[in-house]
Amino acid sequence: QKYLPTSCKKILIISDYSAPIWGIETHIQGSIGALCTNGYEVHTLFALKGENRYIRYLWLLFSSVNIWFAFRLWWKIRQYQPDAIWVHSEVRCIGPLGLLPLLKFSGCLIKTYHDLGYFGAFPTQFTSESQLKSTRHFVDFFQRSKGIHRYFLLHIFAKFCQIQAIRSILWTRWVHIVPSEFMIPAAQGFVTPMAQVVKISHFSPHHP
């Protein structure tokens, strides 16, 4: 709550999926309950329900051109007029185009990082904290994809371009929340000094 303006009453939460299929969605539902308990009015906007894995896989191919979500987000902001917008997962379905209306939003903007997918094409390739660095150069991004994954050059390049496009939207005046201390330097390299990077554990009793 200390990262929200004192005048903030209405919060819009956006993310890829609404169904509780992974920890992200469970965390969102818990956050909604905590915010409502503390007197906030919370609305949500999700790209998909996400229960069908084949539909999720299909949308991965179109996440970089999801202009339909951009229209939905623009209309939701106009209709609801939130004081703050909290972005959770956007790489899997919403994509950079879906976030474009946020460039014109003048209220408080919050982004939570739930995984390491912003720092490498294949997050499971990370085996130590020392590998977690900023992702401003394709060579670094590519070198983190070891072994057989190097043959997926097109996928790696497409993921890098998508992350850079998302970064161009997220990197300025946002509050960036990471769940672990070791992610702070990587997140700081992802944004500009104007942005604020803070650690809030997903399971902290003081959250949100």
Folded structure, characterized:
This protein has helices spanning 23-37, 53-62, 67-80, 95-98, 138-143, 153-170, 184-190; strands spanning 10-17, 41-48, 84-87, 108-112, 175-178, 196-199. By secondary structure, it is α/β, with parallel strands linked by helices. β5, α7 (184-190) and β6 (196-199) form a beta-alpha-beta unit. The longest helix has 18 residues, at 153-170.
- Annotation, overall tally of beta strands: 6
Mean pLDDT: 80
What is the chain-wise order of helices and strands? EHEHHEHEHHEHE
Unreliable spans are 203-208
End-to-end Cα distance, whole Å, is 6 Å
Give the helix tally: 7
* Biggest beta sheet attributes: 6 strands, parallel
Q: Strand fraction band?
A: 15-25%
Oligomeric grouping of the chains: single chain
Radius of gyration: 17 Å
Category from helices, strands and their pairing:
alpha/beta
Widest sheet: strand ordering = 2-1-3-4-5-6
Share of residues in helices: 25-40%
Q: Given the C-alpha coordinates, what overall shape results?
A: globular
Give the gist of this structure.
The chain has 208 residues and is α/β, with parallel strands linked by helices.
Secondary structure layout:
Layout: E1 10-17, H1 23-37, E2 41-48, H2 53-62, H3 67-80, E3 84-87, H4 95-98, E4 108-112, H5 138-143, H6 153-170, E5 175-178, H7 184-190, E6 196-199
Parallel strand pairs: 1-2, 1-3, 3-4, 4-5, 5-6
